[in-house]
Amino acid sequence: MHRAEPITILRFLINHFDAVKELYERQSTEGAIRKEVFQEIVKRHGADITNQFFDYKILKQNGEDYEFRKSYYDFLEFILVEFRPVLPESIEKYYSVINDLFRKIKQGSHEEKMILEARIAELAEQIREFLEQVEKNTLRLLSESRELKANADKIDYRQKLHKASFWIDYYILPLNKILDVNNPHSIAYKLAEVAEYVNQKRLVFLDEKIRQRFEKLYYMLIQVNDDLIRNSKILTNELLPLIERIRTESSILSGWIDFLKNPFRIETPPLLKENMFTPYSKDMYYHTKEFFEQFEIQDDIILKEESVELEKWIYNKAAYKEKLKAQLPVYNFFEWIVNELKQEFGTTDTEKIFTLTSLIFEEDLKVEFQESEQYIETTQSQFKVPKIKIENYGLPE
Hints:
single chain, mainly alpha, two-stranded antiparallel sheet, 4 strands
């Protein structure tokens, strides 16, 4: 069967976009395009394009009705920004899919390489689809809530209250739980777990091609995490407060309207109560006078500078390095520092210990850290330090 060129299909969509858009809107509102509706729309737009819709695989028959193929419907939905909010239950299915693929990747990391590559690619695709659904929902919910706030369609307050409660209970709060990285059962938490595993494998996996796949997936997960945080902030900081405000305003106004319809049904409490307040205290004059009187008599203030004697110690790095090299190998570097300072000054000062520690960065010294640890005491505090072995590089001098 002859297949139309891609440019031919795109040119057809451009030339007859008004008809295509109207057909899309009918399917969005009615779930399908009835045959007579299709014929009426095509005839109204004045072009004989019935066959092209089916030759180009744009529409397909569904019983007596027609409908767009999914790829075309998703494309039109995207360019028209007409996303229908998906129930969070539909998004939660990605948790099972992602968790199952992740489990198989961990268990089958030593199996056939082609299978492992396919699972990594499919995991990336599922994560990508999940993010797209979240972004579509967030964008649509934000648009719906702003329209509800503006109330351009002059919706009744009761209906406005019902809509606001509906968006919160069935979309916003459940979606927020899905994006909660602190919830062990959320998809965001599972993606963080996947990212940790992928980060390890991209560094140590033996096969280079698989290692590159893991690395690509890791950087994608970093971007996905940023996008999920951004969507979560929109839900928490903008969308939820906006709809809560709509719901609060609507409930107050709805109650007030009900009251005005029959204000004498019940006896109301007094709404206004006369009280007289002054913006200042009755004793303000005496308080002010007392405040200024305290500055009338001033005592003489004498400032004395106390001279603090500081120990003048000049760090002779070359001399200490020679002492250290003369005693190599040294099996406990910090013990050597403490002994040297006690021998020279009689005490161990914290500043001197940290200064002498810089010797381990000398290039001609070989430094080896031991597994054991120890405590050293100075005149100011106590420190937990490792045992360090110091040797010469190369042959001994």
